Amino acid sequence: MRYHLDTIPVWDAVKLDGECFLCALRRKLELDEVERCLGASVMEPDARIRVNEQGFCKHHQAMLFATNNRLGHALMLHTHLDETRKQLDKRFASLRKAAAAYSASSLGDKLTGKSAAARKDMENAAAQLGQQVTTCVLCESIDENMQRYMHTFFHLYKTDGEFRHAIAASKGLCLPDAALLLQAAPKELPPKDVAPFTEMLLSLEEKSLARLDEDIAWFIKKYDYRFDDQPWKNSRDAVERTANKLRGWCIGQEPNPKEK
After folding, report:
1. Model confidence over 2-20: pLDDT tens digits?
2. Which pLDDT belongs to residue 16?
3. In terms of DSSP H, where are the helices of the chain?
4. Contacts for 87 with CB less than 8 Å, ≥ 6 apart
5. pLDDT of 49-59, one tens digit each?
6. Which letter, b or e, does each residue of 209-228 get, where b requires 16 or more Cβ atoms within 10 Å of its Cβ?
7. What local confidence, expressed as pLDDT, does residue 1 receive?
8. Are 102 and 115 in contact (CB under 8 A)?
9. What's phi and psi for 201, nearest 5 deg?
10. DSSP sequence for 181-246
């Protein structure tokens, strides 16, 4: 049943015929998660507990802020701030203790190794503080869902000939997502299918990169007065498509046309 439910969004993303169907899936998940987070989730106890513990990364803070739901954002931030302050009491106490011990180290402490131990304690305490402020409930949720979609992709690839044909005729993926599929292939596919899958995917990437190379080269030429009367061909959005192919969707038109 889980595979059946997940095949629809995977198929829909492939049918978009974009530069990377996984980017399209990830972006749709992200937009849906942001909307949900400031909607019904504001009042859901389980969701609030997760937000209080993990908070949001700066990228998703910016997305939440851009929705203009200032009250919903404030409610999430307030309880997360309260939980953070409780945890920081222990973190700050550890840092103060370690810093004081290191500053008070004598020459003898340096010779016996106590000074190095105190410095290590401070480094560890600072690292724990850093870890606390790098978690994101939205990143975690999106990653979990993308792992599920990856499994669904390989399930379809193994069992659906039409899906295999659609992938082979696609524009491939962005390089980071191609790498993810190649890493997962030995775990998801029978050994005999790994080499053909790898060759298919690498060939798609090579063809796609060559196409983008032509497009962006022509885009640059169009800024030369000698080519002023020539058509733009398929190069008007070459900068966006090239950047997105190299590093994953980040600029330009949304990968899901219906999304704003």
Report:
1. 556 689 999 999 999 999 9
2. 95
3. 2-15, 21-37, 45-54, 58-66, 70-103, 107-112, 114-132, 137-159, 161-168, 175-188, 191-221, 238-247
4. 132
5. 999 999 999 99
6. eebbeebbebbeebeeeeee
7. 41
8. yes
9. -70, -45
10. HHHHHHHHS-HHHHHHHHHHHHHHHHHHHHHHHHHHHHHHHTTSGGGTTS--TT-TTHHHHHHHHH
